[in-house]
Amino acid sequence: MKVLYIDIETGGHHQTYLKALMDISGKENVLVLPEKIEGLNAKQYVFRKTDFFNKKLLEYYKWTKEVKGIIKTEKPNVVHFLYGDVFYKYFGLGLEGLKKKYKVINTIHALKKGKIGIVSLKRVMHLSSIGVVHTDAIFNEVKDAGIENVVHIEYPHFSTGYDIDKVGARKYYSLSENAFVLGCIGGTRFDKGLDILLKALQGVTGDFELLIAGAEDAIKREKIEELARPYRNRVKLYLDFLTDEEFEMAIQAVDAIVLPYRKTFNGASGPLGEGVAKGKMIIAANHGSLGDIVEKNHLGYTFESENIEVLKKVLNMAVQRTNYTYDEKANAYKNKLSINEFKKQYCKLYF
């Protein structure tokens, strides 16, 4: 059994996701990536890195042609596109003919809104053997659209077991021992709404601190510092790529994970899963999968997406909950996020 994995990034959770799948026994792994990952016991092909979401048709076509050439050379049993969202823009162009020779798995992380997004996804799934989504909300919407060859595998937590207590984690990020710490963890992409949170915090009272930890992206340091000026002494800013250990320490250090994502985001959230694994309060925008997961599983609080005033009220309430604990429903969801269950479900698809 040979599985050929294709991904368009190696940063953030892309690498931990890939490593978890590679750990499924009984198969040979071949990787097609934009850069080599050191220390992996697998054959790796590297393609020319490009801006996948702003790329022109010719660049996209060259990439699909290069990937199909590698597939033809390797002759795998399974071709697994780990970020099938890349096919939305050109309606799956380049996937033609693959599933006649190989089992083609496409993992879709977010659902594009509107009729065009669904039409594109229908074609992508028509050209795939099976699709994978990570949330109930997306699964139900896809099925309602008439797409049958899709399964739901819950996005797991990828905690490495790095053992550090809350006190030690707070020392690492220079946070106070007794303050209520809000965490915005991960890259500062525009759709993740960090600026919405920073504006809302201008009207929050109480003993709080904010940890922003992750790679600098669309929302730059200058903008963050400008919006956080009224409470700048309460902000700990760590704009850098996080190692697995630093990511786990960031999650451990906070009392609440805040997910102020814009309405354009409709997928699974890595920080949500990692926060749940450590029993953290989750504060999330109420649209799409995020709101559905938090509300159904009693994980914390939701607020009207992109509404700064409502988020302000929720934050003022949350920072007073110093004794927050999970109920039975939340703990049941926490148990579902096992990495072993994730691998078990994918194993069924491969074999």
TrEMBL record:
One of its GO terms (molecular function) is glycosyltransferase activity. SUPFAM superfamilies: UDP-Glycosyltransferase/glycogen phosphorylase. It holds the Pfam family Glyco_trans_1_4. One of its GO terms (biological process) is lipopolysaccharide biosynthetic process. Keywords: Transferase. Transmembrane segments: none annotated. It comes from the Bacteria. PANTHER family: GLYCOSYLTRANSFERASE WBBK-RELATED. This is Glycosyltransferase. It comes from Blautia obeum. The lineage of its organism: Bacteria, Bacillati, Bacillota, Clostridia, Lachnospirales.
